[in-house]
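Annotated sample (chain length 120).
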Amino acid sequence: MEDESEKPTGGDARKHFRAPLIIQKVLVAGQPPAFFGYSKNISKSGMFIATTNPIEAGEEITLEFPLPAPLTGTVRCKCEVVWKRPNGSHLPFEPGMGMRFVDMPTEVTEQLDEWIKEQE
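Output written by the structure step:
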């Protein structure tokens, strides 16, 4: 997998629209659940999570986070780390990782897609 710091900055290769969204309570499933980072944007296929300790690309974890208002509820799904951006004061971008939803329920994917379209 490719590191975000190695990707070209001139274009945007995203397949799905993203909307800015601050989610401060993104949790990694475990015993007990632990604070992991916070989301900066979301699409129907994934999200960026800002964190100083990104996980290696290719790894899968289970995340839990609240849906954006006016949607209600909390979603829990398996995600794959697609890319990571390391922490470093010399780097121009915020550290974190790009996550792809692996088993997001179709109903939630559709709700997110509609919500994102409304944000434009």
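Annotation: The longest strand covers residues 74-85.
Annotation: Confidence is low (pLDDT under 50) at residues 1-14.
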